[in-house]
Write a structure and sequence with these properties.
single chain; 250 residues; mainly alpha; MetI-like fold; two-stranded antiparallel sheet; 2 strands
């Protein structure tokens, strides 16, 4: 962040908005926005309850399962689309459609197929994340440095060596970018899936606190979800910056 030509640390910006939120909360302009101090105080109570711990276990489990499937399927299909033309022609249009489609509209259909439970949330996380991973993997593999590919062929590299030592390393920044975006979309998927089902995990707590107008507890959950998504995103972004060396000059 830049202010009057000087770089301002992120913590200063965060502190500014927290102070502003605190002032607005104490002014009482809206009961929807309680003071941040009351939210943090409520969080100390909420986070120690058995209900919250159980909800987090369910949410993390469904998120991990959905994202694991999205990573396996997304990277595999993205690679096939980049290397096999017929796969690109068959799946390319559908991947682009689902990247921009409102996936949340499919949750009621998933509920009809998989029932009301964790399986529906796992499928929701998978659908939210997989298509952007496919797209970025396909772009990264297809734009791998042709000179490196030709060099590998001339030196007698096997297909496995070509894939692991040239294509993957060259495409790694794009693949990681897709994973980072997929993780963010996956967090949205687990919250939206649980909110629409409204009986399990964090979604159940969101529904309960909003219905009873417990805004301090509600906002404490929002902060947890936002922090979780931010930490995951920044962690992958850091790793992404570290491996940019392998991208080479396109």
């Amino acid at each position: 962040m830049q202010l009057f030509g000087k770089k301002i640390p992120f913590s200063v910006s965060l502190l500014f908005w927290c102070v502003l939120w605190e002032l607005v909360g104490w002014m009482g302009w809206s009961s929807i926005f309680p003071p941040i101090s009351k939210i943090l105080l409520a969080a100390t109570t909420v986070f120690t309850t058995e209900k919250f711990i159980k909800a987090m276990e369910i949410s993390l489990r469904t998120f991990a399962l959905g994202m694991s499937l999205a990573l396996i399927v997304g990277i595999a299909l993205g690679t096939l689309m980049a290397r096999v033309r017929i796969v690109q022609e068959i799946l390319g249009m559908w991947v682009n459609i689902f990247v921009s489609a409102p996936i949340s509209a499919l949750v009621p259909i998933l509920m009809g197929i998989l029932g009301i439970g964790e399986a529906t949330v796992v499928a929701t996380v998978f659908l939210f994340a997989v298509f952007i991973i496919i797209l970025d993997t396909q772009v990264g593999i297809s734009k791998a440095d042709r000179s490196l590919v030709e060099m590998g062929k001339s030196l007698g590299a096997t297909r496995y060596q070509m894939f692991t030592k040239i294509l993957v390393l060259s495409a790694l920044p794009e693949i990681l970018a897709g994973i980072r975006l997929g993780v963010i979309r996956g967090v949205k998927g687990v919250v939206i899936g649980q909110l629409l089902i409204s009986i399990i995990g964090i979604g159940e707590l969101f529904e309960f606190y909003s219905m009873h107008f417990l805004m301090e507890e509600f906002w404490s959950l929002v902060i947890v979800v936002f922090t979780f998504a931010f930490v995951l995103s920044e962690g992958i972004a850091y790793f992404e910056r570290r491996v940019e060396y392998y991208a080479g000059n396109r």
